[in-house]
Amino acid sequence: MVMERINSKLLFCKTMLMINTAFWFAIAILYSTGKHDLPRHLIISILLFMEVILCVGAYLAVVKRWRLGIFLAMLLALSNAVLALIDQQGILDSVGMILSLLALTSLILVRKDIRNEK
Fold first, then answer.
1. Quick check: 53 pLDDT over 90?
2. Count of beta carbons in the 10 Å neighbourhood of residue 14
3. What's 98's DSSP letter?
4. pTM (2 d.p.)
């Protein structure tokens, strides 16, 4: 029974991280294909693709049950939520904030279970 609960939390966490990754990848693609000022556009595009790489790293940290990696993934989700809250310019910021908060909550639950597991 306990393992089923842990596995369902892990599955939810992995799902939220993959949804976050897909969301940021879509944003990065949309922004990269738009017409913007070149220097600023290039820097923001690079930052958005780095976000995708960090989300994949967070997913791998959960899969491997790496406690430090999960902590760093929590910081990533928290910083995304805070940045989306501060920026708050449209529906995409609201969606990003909700996804980041859901990912953060699932990471906190998984971290507690992994800490108790070892």
1. yes
2. 15
3. H
4. 0.83
